[in-house]
């Protein structure tokens, strides 16, 4: 029997965001220092937060998920733990059996549509039986980044109204549409004019009519204005990776050779915390917890 989702942390966070019209950062962490900075930012800003880990990180640093799960339960603001872009069926089953996660992105977009939908439907049921919410990608978002298998020669596919209906029928809780967004970098100027189809996002939001929530992937190089426009057109869960973490990466590149390790990490966490706080303000989640 599918569990009652009234206590699912990810869905509680997104439901409040939908009701009060703001966006929530779903932030990737690759290590304990980044995790710590993200949580400190959420508490400092009194903001909800979704912590995201890639399946590759679960294998590289097996204890990080349990540190994140502890942060979720100990934080003074609403935080949830999400596994992003889980692309291997067996690993997904291992994750939901062994790690206290709140939600999983079941990413079968590297299969053709029929197989994508069938696998998504089966895995959504298995996740729901454990009280775990499910995100899926409709269409196909092009590109790749650290932690995600590149789509390679597969063509990017925009989300259609039929895609939306099919994925809702598969039983998902969060929909990640393809509207011209891409995994990886757009370039220093950000997305080109017209690259992001805000009208498509708005139409998808109207079509789902609050039955599921919308996640937006591919936010590298987004300006505050683009981020807010995405939120205004229905995106609630804003997946962020390099958008936040580049300040951390730049700090390490500049100072690793001549700075004691403890100081390097302390300074890096403060820098990342401030960047995260800035985007919480941009998304409108500050003060909402």
Automatic annotation (TrEMBL):
Zn(2+) 1 binds at residues 85, 183, 217. Zn(2+) 2 binds at residues 107, 137. Pathway: Carbohydrate degradation; glycolysis; D-glyceraldehyde 3-phosphate and glycerone phosphate from D-glucose: step 4/4. GO terms for molecular function: fructose-bisphosphate aldolase activity; zinc ion binding. Its cofactor is Zn(2+). The active site is at residue 84. The keyword NAD does not apply. Keywords: Glycolysis, Lyase, Metal-binding, Zinc. Belongs to the class II fructose-bisphosphate aldolase family. It holds the Pfam family F_bP_aldolase. This is Fructose-bisphosphate aldolase. GO terms for biological process: glycolytic process. The keyword Metal-binding applies. PROSITE patterns: ALDOLASE_CLASS_II_1 (PS00602). InterPro entries: Aldolase_TIM (IPR013785), Class_II_FBP_aldolase (IPR050246), FBA_II (IPR000771). It comes from Periconia macrospinosa. Its EC number is 4.1.2.13. Catalyzes the aldol condensation of dihydroxyacetone phosphate (DHAP or glycerone-phosphate) with glyceraldehyde 3-phosphate (G3P) to form fructose 1,6-bisphosphate (FBP) in gluconeogenesis and the reverse reaction in glycolysis. Binds 2 Zn(2+) ions per subunit. One is catalytic and the other provides a structural contribution. It catalyses: beta-D-fructose 1,6-bisphosphate = D-glyceraldehyde 3-phosphate + dihydroxyacetone phosphate.
